[in-house]
Known about the structure:
- The longest helix is centred in the middle third of the chain and has 23 residues, at 148-170.
- This protein is globular.
- The relative contact order is 0.10.
- Helix 4 (112-123) packs antiparallel against helix 5 (127-139), helix 4 packs parallel to helix 6 (148-170) and helix 6 (148-170) packs across helix 7 (176-189).
- It has helices at residues 8-18, 25-40, 73-78, 112-123, 127-139, 148-170, 176-189, 225-229, 253-258; strands spanning 47-52, 55-60, 81-83, 141-145, 190-192, 207-212, 217-222, 241-244, 249-252.
- Strand 1 (47-52) and strand 2 form a beta hairpin.
- The strands form four sheets. Strands 3-4-5 form a three-stranded parallel sheet. Strands 1-2 form a two-stranded antiparallel sheet.
- The chain is α/β, with parallel strands linked by helices.
Amino acid sequence: MPRVLKKKTLQDARVRDKAEVFTPSWLCNLQNNLVDNAWFGREGVFNTECFENSASFWVVNMNKVKFPRGKSWKSYVLSTRLEITCGEAPYLVSRYDTTTGDYIPVMQRIGMLDRKLRIVAENTSSLEEWREWARKSYQSVYGYEWQGDSLLLAREALLFTYVDFYADKFLKMPSVNELFEIADIISWNIWQMDGMRGVVPNSCHDIVVRTEDIFEVKEAIVKCAGCKRNDKFSHNGVYCKIKDWETGNIVRFVDILKS
């Protein structure tokens, strides 16, 4: 169940327990625009932000996106993006406003993956080429989340986004095999993690160490070294792994931070 449909008491409890506060789409758009303003070297690439009478919204730039000298649409698609503590992933995809539940039409969407898929649609003609670069778009966006139910909703949102853009471009639905292929990418790139530790939530644990002599058996509790020292690289929990799609290598997420 999306956060907007949960009872207010449950929403408040999750705010207290896990600092779960979702960002409205207009603010996600504003911040995503800052990223693209820096990448393109100009403003208003995808839309223009509007603030009128206490209302916040955006007006889409319907012209085909032009790229600055030395950059191409392919380099934009391949640029890596990560949404930390992603919740239902409103910065990646914007099928609906996470704070109101309002559906957002395909051409009005403002997520980082939405923008990549728009670029792919504008620069490909054949189905095979679109599929190839849509797949690369998914391989280039990542997100992690502590709450398992929010993670599931984020994964669903990314999968349905593929269907939405596919249908908008080709006026038909993708095959089940295509969806399995995209779902495989999503399952690697959108994962459950304790962002403070880099491990599966609640997987750090105490270890019982037993010693014995001729008189007795003694037990001592050894705490997780990473939790004790606040060292991200010394936890005894299950470290989360992601996939480098360019090389095909499986890597620990914390090792990327170390490098």
